[in-house]
Amino acid sequence: MRKIIILILFFLPAILQAQTERSERMIIDMTTGINVNLFEPKFGNASDCLLSTKTISPFIKGRFSYFFSSGWGAFVDFKLASATYSGKDYSNIIPNLYYNLGDDFNEKNSTILHDGSIGGTYRIENKNWSIRTRLGIGIGEMLAKNPNFTIKEKGNNNLYYIIYVAGDRYMEVDELPFLNPGISLSYKYDDILFNVDINYTQFIQKTSYTYVLTDAYTQKVIEKRKFAPKNLSGNLEIGLGVSFSF
Amino acid sequence: MKYLLRTMLVLAVFLGMGFDCQGYWDEEPEYKSCKLTDFQLHHMNNEGKQSVEATSDGIKKEAYILRIDLITDSLISNYNYSFYKLEDGIIKLDINTINTFNQDYPAGADIRTCFTNYPGTVEQGIADYTQKGYTIDIMTGSKIYLALRTIPQVGLHSFKVTLTLASGKKIEKETTPIALY
């Protein structure tokens, strides 16, 4: 499904075969819309519970594009997306031999995620209409969760702390590289373009987690291991915006 | 007008990014003075999720907790302990076994090291800092939960608890016998 979206976004202008009349060299886009986190957790691995699940949140984006010719250009963009930590039942992480005495997911209600990318863009114009496709590479932030639990063994005084740490140390967001194909459909009125903007962000690296089991009395680490989720994360952005061309 | 609109839009977007105003107000609380008048000892059964008062059936020896309730001359409500401070703080907490505890600890032995502050969240809990050389004075709670971490022999047990105050005054109490199995 994702591959199909990427292919459609990138080759649509070539399919349309539109004619180019007059071109501006620089375009500044301001877009706002919804960001859909497409990460589908696979259960059976504790890390699946720690990452963001499917969420929809608003975003704003600024993009500067410079065209070397009427068709080809380069762009740089910067996005801010609001992200909300999804409430989730983490009790399946705790074995049946133990009670969950308390947990803390270190979660704020929401946070702002940033990402930026650079890449190439191709433009086709036909009178007041234009289509711009893009393929970029960038660095984006992903929510990381660092939940900790206090667990008690049934039938005795043994007490342990379980801590999941994103990466090697505590972090609320992880910065990961991504590829982002995208397309903008624009209508030009005077010097202002009105756009429908669709982007897909495919992260190409996973957030790894460190699991630490500690004796609550002695603070001695009993077990420490690293793991990573099975699949990569991705976001689909759909937005409306205006652009100024120079 | 067009340029002004553009500039305002660009500024609105980029100035709106990443404002994070943080401020906090931290003020030293004003402590009210109180005196330790007495304490009570309770046998707690910690087999379940939360510890409960022991019944006459006794307690599994791996799940024993000794609870020490500090009693002061002030009526302290559940949520304002930290604003009370003992005039005469507790500098030492000793526990001696009345009966033979196990092979290593005969009757009368000091078994304080067999107990550890229970690290679980408990209502009105206060840790015994005296082993680290600190004084228990700020009443962040009124109940000291000490989990038994050295396994005793099966049988009836009772313990003598002695609180030594900064003034040198000592208060002693003995628990009722409890069967540990």
Would you write up a description of this structure?
The complex is a heterodimer of chains A (246) and B (181). Chain A has 246 residues and is mostly beta strands. Chain A has a single domain (2-245), classed as Porin (Beta Barrel), CATH 2.40.160. Chain A is built from two helices and 13 strands, in the order H-E-H-E-E-E-E-E-E-E-E-E-E-E-E. In chain A, the strands form two sheets. Chain A has an eight-stranded antiparallel barrel with strand order 1-2-3-5-6-9-10-13. In chain A, strand 9 (173-189) and strand 10 form a beta hairpin. The longest helix of chain A is centred in the first third of the chain and has 15 residues, at 2-16. Mean pLDDT of chain A is 81; it is low at 12-21. Chain B is mainly β. Chain B has one domain (32-173). Chain B has one helix and twelve strands; from the N terminus they run αββββββββββββ. In chain B, strands 1, 5, 7, 10 and 11 form a five-stranded mixed β-sheet that branches. Chain B has a five-stranded antiparallel β-sheet with strand order 3-2-4-8-6, with no helix packed on it. The longest helix of chain B is centred in the first third of the chain and has 14 residues, at 2-15. The termini of chain B are far apart. Residues 17-24 of chain B have low confidence and may be disordered.
